[in-house]
Amino acid sequence: LAGAGMQIARCAPSSRAFIVTVPPVSRRYGGVLQRSLRSMGYRVHRVLVPDGDATKSPRQLSKLWDELIRFGADRNTPVVALGGGMVGDLAGFAAASYLRGVPFIQIPTTILAMVDASIGGKVAVNLPQGKNLIGAFYQPRLVWIDTATLRSLPVRQRAAGFAEVVKAAAIWDSEFFERLERDAEGLMELDPKVLIPTLERACAIKAEVVSRDEREAGLRQILNFGHTIAHAIEKLSRYRGLLHGEAVAIGMLIAAQKSEQLGLSPAGTAERIRNLVVRFGLPSELPNHPRSAYLDALRVDKKMVNSKIGFVVLRGIGRAETVPLAPREVLPASRRRPGSSGA
Questions:
Q1: 80: β partners
Q2: Which residues of 252-270 are buried (b: 16+ CB within 10 A; e: fewer)?
Q3: Alpha carbon distances (Å) from 93 to 13, 90, 241
Q4: Of 165, 191, 249, 301, which is least surrounded by CB within 10 A?
Q5: How far apart are CA 39 and CA 45, in angstroms?
Q6: How far apart are CA 88 and CA 1, in angstroms?
Q7: 15-31 burial, b if ≥16 CB within 10 A, otherwise e?
């Protein structure tokens, strides 16, 4: 992290830098980053936003615009996101929209942000009607990862991040999935012998998919595996309670179950996913909201076209595709545990 300033100066030279972060991350790492930027001649302004996905709102976005104007940020001023996926999404959309676009730097400090949210250039805020409904495709100039920041992550946050690693393996690489099945406990302990190659592979999968389809016209949609239900869960919980990765874990189980029900995926696919996410300490039960509420949330899904959702299913571990499903077809009518027998 101490070397970030030099890298940022290479790709976004300017006299000023604008950091967006949350209080816990700022206390641990904000000073290191700020000193690194100042050593390269930047005048630095650090803005703290509240932690939690509810912060991804038009109101907070407007506050960032106000701060950028007060700071005198110009078109060369880099906006630096220091933190998890929420910070990257919010700061990234501020960067994409302020003065029609200023340089954007991602410095992710969570597993989820390192392997998923920081890569691919999707930035957005939420509306009361649904998640990520207002956003842009806006690529960062730099993604700078220091795995030492993961040591301060609570265990629950670690697990939530590994949900996105499981997703990457499930949709793209069966051998990688087998490695996760072998190394789950070592990964949760952040054993560098398994952690570094795992993060590298997950990042590479995301980058490969995005490079083939940056604006989600086709292939990139498979990265939404588990996210259709996850976003409905998050909306109904008002973006509190469950972490994003926890909601994705549940969504992946339901999607794998649906894959088997449609006859697309071999029997046992959902059970393998369930066993792995449980080993990471992730939840496997759909929160007990009324089915009608879930259906209402699904109808506002941003992937809806002609009243159908492009729902991501598996053809087996390592192979994914999308199928058009109506909301009532996505959500199982029963409360059977996702991935249980009879899937």
A1: 19, 105
A2: bbbbbbbbbeeebbeeebb
A3: 20, 5, 24
A4: 191
A5: 14
A6: 16
A7: ebbbbbbbeebbebbbe
CA distances from 54 to 64, 89, 218, 239 (A): 15, 12, 29, 6
pLDDT in tens, 161-187: 999 999 999 999 999 999 999 999 999
Q: CA-CA distance, 32 to 122, in Å (whole number)?
A: 27
Q: Which residues have C-beta within 8 Å of that of residue 312, sequence separation ≥ 6?
A: 171, 221, 222, 224, 225, 226, 227, 228, 255, 320, 321, 322
Sequence-ordered list of residues with C-beta below 8 angstroms from that of 47, at least 6 positions apart, any chain: 18, 19, 20, 21, 64, 67
Identify the three-state secondary structure at position 47.
strand
- The Cα–Cα gap between 327 and 107 comes to 36
User: pTM of the entire structure?
Assistant: 0.88
Residue 202 contacts residue 316 (beta carbons within 8 Å)? no
Q: How far is CA 286 from CA 57, 163, 194, 226, 301, in A?
A: 25, 16, 31, 12, 18
Whose tokens are 């996905």? That residue is: 53
Task: Please write down the HEC assignment for all residues of 248-317.
Answer: HHHHHHHHHHHHHHCCCCCCCHHHHHHHHHHHCCCCCCCCCCCHHHHHHHHCCCCCEECCEEEEEEEEEC
3-state SS, residue 44 = strand
pLDDT band for position 341 (cuts 50, 70, 90): very low
As annotated, the active-site residues are 100, 122, 164, 206, 216, 220, 224, 227, 231, 244
Quick: pLDDT tens for 103-154. 999 999 999 999 999 999 999 999 988 889 999 999 999 999 999 999 999 9
